[in-house]
């Protein structure tokens, strides 16, 4: 079979390497495995960004029809990523600070950093400025589940907290205790 790009039903364009049988298995040659891991990590992060997926779990390699099915399986060549291989890819992403384990102290589920916390901080501050939320106290829920969908909609709280920590360190936010948990006040100002 010729290695060609392929567009998934969701409209995501898979790279030609996704049509290679060997791409779906861990390779014994360290150089080849490193190249494949780099390609997998790029693929996972770009697909996550395209579909706005924040979490990948080892179990996603076993679930047919799940959010990750389009990239973790290739029915055209009858291949899929095995859970053990996905575990090693998740570990590689975490070691490169492109993902972090959530919940902590386990190795089967990660939050993907298709945007770094610093980038999310800028998105949060820009959203607050654009929507007139500067100097307003907001709960974390109001940020991740606003009445009008935003780039922050559906963001995991742990990732939002990391973005808020960046804003706090740069003087663009202040954490506030509110009745049902914590909130944040976005402050005017530059980086």
Query: Termini separation (Å)?
Result: 51 Å
Report the structural category: alpha+beta
Instruction: Kindly report the spatial arrangement of strands forming the biggest sheet.
Output: 3-7-6
Could you tell me the strand content as a percent range? 15-25%
Please state the overall shape, judged from the principal axes of the Cα atoms: elongated
Number of helices: 6
Radius of gyration: 19 Å
Largest sheet report: 3 strands, antiparallel
Reading the helices and strands in chain order gives EEHEHEEHEEHEHHEE
Average pLDDT figure? 94
Low-confidence stretches are none
Secondary structure: number of strands: 10
Helix content: 25-40%
Task: Give a brief rundown of this model.
The relative contact order is 0.11. Helix content is 37%, strand content 17%.
Characterise the protein shown here.
- The chain contains six helices and ten strands, in the order ββαβαββαββαβααββ.
- Helix 4 (117-130) crosses helix 6.
- Strand 1 and strand 2 (13-14) form a beta hairpin.
- The protein is an alpha+beta fold and 191 residues long.
- The chain starts with 5 loop residues before the first strand and ends in a 5-residue tail after the last strand.
